[in-house]
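Re: that backbone. Tokens:
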């Protein structure tokens, strides 16, 4: 390894194989001594200051020597190798360095060597070559910084200003949601008593008139109970009459007659109750409209309890909008905000409405999604869509900058993953 060529190849190989900035800096200030003898060496970078010193494992950035050396090296902006002497460094040069120095610049910094004798042309050429190799290695190992494009000239500044104006241009935030035309003032038809539905007199969406029979409960159980109650009433009345006749001859019969009279009245009340229930097994429409329910087959033979909803009677033209807004978008919806309904049957003629209410809690939908129910009142001047029409609702919110409207969803998605 005494041949200079082999020495150079060894140093060059180490620089090329360096895996970090500090390893490259160490080679530049320490192993270069195998090529050219020197007493002191330092590597300086414009963005980091003195990065490495010969013979030192770490650099104390606050020491007087490092501060003076950093000030010295930062004062030269040459692109070519430059010999330095005490004249270039002032009176303090002799306190820190030998008589002769050599400054070798590279892109973003420089390498400085110092010794007692001046450097020859061959030594300068070899160290300059090494410095160039070190600079390339440092550039490759330094993490790249994202540089924002800088505007150049009036055209560049004008384009930048236009971009800022576009980003800050106010737009109305909006969300889309599946929607449907539903009854605004439906009349709920409930089971009048506990029983089993025996007959449905109407079909879904049938037009009904006031007083028309809608459905009827099975009367078998009530009829049987009424027959038993009537027989019990007849028996109680017969016992009472017999005892009332015996009161003329038997004083004890007066007490027994009062008890039997109360029993007969109890049986009569039971008969009247069952008769009234039997009269209510037919449920009639309280007003004209259409019958709104799912399917006849789902109700026939189905047991119901008192007050259970069976159907609704609604005016086909008295409608409003019901929309389901996703949980992530409900923050954009405000009561009183404008809503535009695009019906599937007529998407080119949107219907205007105003948000009336926003459900506080989200509810599960038939498609297994979770959403908030939105109710919106249609404008009086509008031709209200008939009941049951479906479409898509656009609900407008606050005015926000265009850049926020464009990046709101991506930012929300990122926050879900990184928690910020």
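Recovered sequence:
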């Amino acid at each position: 390894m005494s041949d200079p060529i082999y020495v150079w190849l060894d140093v060059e190989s180490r620089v090329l194989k360096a895996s970090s900035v500090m390893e490259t800096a160490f080679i530049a200030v320490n192993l270069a001594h195998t090529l050219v003898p020197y007493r002191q060496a330092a590597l300086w970078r414009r963005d980091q200051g003195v990065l490495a010193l010969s013979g030192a494992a770490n650099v104390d950035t606050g020491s007087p020597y490092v501060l003076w050396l950093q000030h010295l090296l930062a004062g030269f902006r040459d692109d070519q190798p430059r010999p330095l002497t005490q004249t270039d460094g002032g009176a303090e040069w002799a306190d820190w360095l030998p008589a002769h120095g050599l400054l070798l610049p590279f892109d973003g910094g420089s390498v400085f060597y110092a010794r007692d004798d001046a450097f020859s042309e061959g030594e300068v050429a070899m160290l300059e070559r090494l410095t160039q190799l070190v600079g390339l290695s440092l550039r490759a190992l330094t993490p790249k910084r994202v540089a924002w494009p800088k505007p150049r000239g009036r055209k560049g500044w004008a384009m930048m200003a236009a971009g800022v104006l576009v980003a800050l241009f106010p737009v109305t935030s909006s969300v889309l949601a599946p929607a449907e035309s539903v009854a605004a003032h439906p009349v709920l038809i409930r089971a009048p008593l506990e029983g089993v539905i025996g007959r449905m007199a109407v079909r879904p969406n049938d037009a009904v008139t006031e007083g028309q029979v809608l459905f009827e409960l099975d009367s078998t159980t009530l009829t049987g109970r009424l027959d038993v109650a009537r027989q019990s009433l007849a028996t109680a009345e017969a016992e009472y009459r017999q005892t009332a006749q015996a009161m003329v001859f038997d004083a004890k019969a007066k007490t027994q007659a009062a008890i039997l009279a109360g029993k007969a009245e109890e049986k009569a009340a039971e008969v009247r109750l069952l008769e009234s229930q039997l009269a209510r097994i037919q449920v009639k429409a309280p007003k004209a409209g259409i019958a709104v329910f799912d399917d006849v087959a789902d109700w026939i033979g189905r047991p119901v309890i008192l007050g259970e909803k069976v159907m609704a009677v609604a005016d086909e033209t008295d409608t409003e909008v019901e929309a389901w807004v996703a949980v992530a978008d409900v923050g954009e919806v405000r009561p009183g905000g404008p809503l535009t309904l695009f019906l599937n049957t007529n998407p080119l003629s949107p219907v205007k409405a105003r948000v009336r209410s926003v459900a506080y809690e989200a509810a599960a939908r038939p498609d297994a999604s979770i959403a908030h129910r939105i109710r919106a009142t249609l404008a009086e001047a509008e031709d209200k869509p008939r009941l049951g029409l479906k479409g898509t609702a656009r609900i407008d919110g606050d005015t926000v900058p265009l850049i926020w409207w464009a990046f709101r969803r991506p930012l929300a998605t990122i926050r879900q993953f990184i928690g910020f």
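The radius of gyration is 48 Å. DSSP finds ten helices and 20 strands in the chain.
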